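Need tokens for this chain, all 531 residues.
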Amino acid sequence: MRQADVSRIGRGWRCLRACALGCLLAGVPAVGPAAPPGWTHQVPVAIAERSGTALADFQVRLDIDTAALIAAGSLRADAGDLRFGSDGAGTVLLDHWVESGIGTASTVVWVKVPALAASTLTGLYLFAGNPAATSASTLQTFDYAGPVENSAVNQISGGTVVGFHNSQRGFRFAPTQDLLLLRLGRYEPNGTVRYVTLFDDASQSILAQLQVGGPAAQYSYADLAWPIWLMRGTDYVLQLYQGPTDDYYYRTTPLSMNPLLQYRHTLVCNDCTQNTLPTTVLSGENWGYADFQFRTRRQASPEPAVVIGEAARATYTVLTGDQDGAPVGTPIALTAVVHGPFSPGGTVAFFADGKPVPGCGAVGLPAGALPAAVCTTTALSVGAHTITAAYSGDADNFASISDPRAQTVVRRTSATRFFTPCRTTFVEHQPFTMFADVDGYAPGGAVRFAMEGNTLCDAAPLEAGLAACTVGNFAVIGELPYNSHRLGAHYGGDVNNTASVSPTEWVTVLSAVEYLMRGDFEFVPPGCPLR
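Here are the structure tokens for all 531 residues:
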């Protein structure tokens, strides 16, 4: 599986496969065949879902070389004409947010994709080249349930008013998933402007600091100049500063945190400034009521991988078969599933040992999430075969060829029946004919007829599955008026059929005297062939 056809197609798919293993490729985009009215450039984007779970409204990170786009005149310098669509004409545009790096080789952009099928490639299109467009970058790309649900402390309230001036009160915490921090806030009893500061616990550096005003005993917030990510499993410290006359709320119970945050403990410092990272730990108490608000993104493990540019049109073809080791002539169904981000169409050709499989030179791909072409054949000869399936490609998808598949066909198990069609009693020295009927796959070759191990006809040829042997030299031996003999047939097999031995049949041979005594009994009745 996943073997490229020709060098150009192979390079495209190898890039896509490499990304599916964990690296993100940002290629130089090319002009596409269609775009929304007003836009001049369309660039394909392929997304590989890798967690094995279907994802809905998933925010996918793209690393885009906007420096190349801007240099080529395909994108405005502010990237305000950047758009993303689920189809090549931009009929449905998707929410996106430009995080950072405009004008660089690695501009981070998040796109909200409605659906990513499990373990499947999904395609979308990047559009650029509209000088009159206004920016559509929006934080609506990310999830937001409400001001309480997306608050660090779920906007708890009340408590005892305490005064310890020129102090920091807050807590250490770690997110349980990546969060996009939007606003810092506070709840305090004085209604004064307060510093709210977010520290990185490991480096002790200030990540964000705002002066937040608002009424007393009410949650108020101020927007960050630009959102920042709080990363899962990383420890942070959030603090509310009290000036010379400021009070704060106090609880004797531990802080009840948002379920997306893991509370570590309360941290305080006295006779310090808003820039001081507290180091005093208080257990089982809650001081302060600093807060922040955030948006969330859907997450998966591992995250989807992305390819941008013409390499996104690469496909891969997966070949499966049934009846491996089946007898010759058995219908064998070969199925080629073409994986591609842009609904692959066209045809698939099937090959056995490098030669086209009869009747399967151009099997159409039906429309579907995973289009599959099926070739059912009985044309494979006995032996081991190497089967491949070659996808033709179409306007939106590169061609590809499957990995070779071993398909073995074995000889059919034959069955041989011995019979004498007229009777089983004969007269000595009277010629009579015996037959062997061989059941198999167009059996050929020869049959050996034998009597108790002694050969009667050594190589009677099969014609249309039937062989005949005529003998006329049977004589009654001994004092009895007749002899009984056990006869049978041995089929030697051929390229398509195994050898087989018939059950034996008993034949009685009468002496001439016995024949006369029986009054011409059974003497060469009409219809008994002689040779």
